[in-house]
Amino acid sequence: MNEILKKTAAEQSAALKNKEISATELTGAAFERIAQIDEKLGTFNSLTQDAAMETARKVDEKIARGEDLPLLAGVPLALKDNMNMTGSRTTASSKILENFVSPFNATVTEKLNANLVPIVGKANLDEFAMGSSNENSAFRKVYNPWDLNRVPGGSSGGSAVAVASCQSTLSLGSDTGGSIRLPASFCGIVGMKPTYGRVSRYGLIALASSLDQIGPFARTVEDAANLLTVISGHDEKDSTSLNLPFENYAAALNNDIKGMKVGVIKELMTEGLAPDVEKAMQRAIEDYKKLGAQIVEISLPNIKHSIGVYYILMTAESSSNLARFDGVKYGYRTPNATNLMEMYTKTRAQGFGPEVKRRIMLGTYALSSGYYDAYYKKAQQMRALVVQDFAEAFKKADVLIGVTCPNTAFEMGSKTADPLAMYLTDIATIGANLAGIPGISVPMGFDADGMPIGLQILAPQLQESRLMNAAHKFERANDYYTKRPQNV
Ligand code: GLN
Fold this sequence. Notes:
The chain has 488 residues and is of the alpha/beta class. It has a domain of 296 residues: Amidase signature (AS) domain (Amidase signature (AS) enzymes), CATH 3.90.1300. Strand 7, helix 8 and strand 8 form a beta-alpha-beta unit. The site of glutamine has 13 residues, from loops.
């Protein structure tokens, strides 16, 4: 592999500016790397080589003219394959969209294009972003580059693996219940979910609209902060996008965190932590003390209900969002139907995979008359309590810390027969989606098998700069972030 691919986006940007390498060489090197290892790792659903090389050429022309480059120009990036890019196949890793070619760009794609960020391809995911292991892709599984027998985490597994294995320097994922933070933690990189509404979701295939948010993957907090700056902002095409100014999120990274109140989430310290994960968490607390932070214990008494609440609200919203895939408007249509109703039912029966069907059934049930009050309405009320827990917590602490997941990446196939066990992997991440607050996962060490462990940091709504500052200081107190998988 060309050594430049192992560098951070910040270093690659500097190398481009100093003409140590051209943008076409850098993007070309990424495609060589992809050709070498994508088959082993299952990272990409499709490549967008022509568009990426065209963007890289534009960067080189700018450099030749001596013009300033926009932020992250020329740095190779992978897009989760549930985001639209004109002319690319956008499948959500589902058979129902297998041959769907985007007629338009998502707003994030537009923003990346405006900054001349080459998009190398569409990264594999769990079908419609439903899953925690990336074993639910209708096409092929994604493998963890640290151990090919283990899952990379999901649902943005391809996006995480692309960055962890240096096939791209950056990527975008979507996070409805942890789908950026969990795979970041399992793959030893940085993954960040912004405040709900911070990044436009126009052109993102919806899973659960009150929870979904797009966010960055990178190998350092600084790179993630810069990517967040590129994709943030108000968008009139997404009515949930916040009409508030955004910041340069890398500006505050080096602020002193002496006296910052770091709240340790009590409920995520006790039950079910793998021993090495618990040890890493204790070390992280000591690191924050050494950095001068004040450690306070925080309780989120309702966090234990978050999985139950999430699986009612998420299934309800997704069953409704998925109604649009009916064989009429987009994608697959069954070839053998004799009437309209048969066309609908056969198309959906043949096009959707088992996890998607499970969730449509659960969601339809939760929303059905007679059960609405018992499930959907109750879940909404519980959601309000989770939101309140966070509001109380942030009166006592500036940021909260805990594990991203109680365990490291598990073996392929070990949870596929037990959906409930799979759902429990999201115990630490779902709360941030229910409350709409930003969260980040940063590497905090390795277990005895050499598998990466993630630290999750949470901040109040719109406090991305504070979050990034707390994460960057922790990152630089250790060298975990410099480690790359050796097997691939
Ligand atoms: N693992 C969770 C789920 O299966 C989260 C998915 C996500 O954030 N997209 O729903």
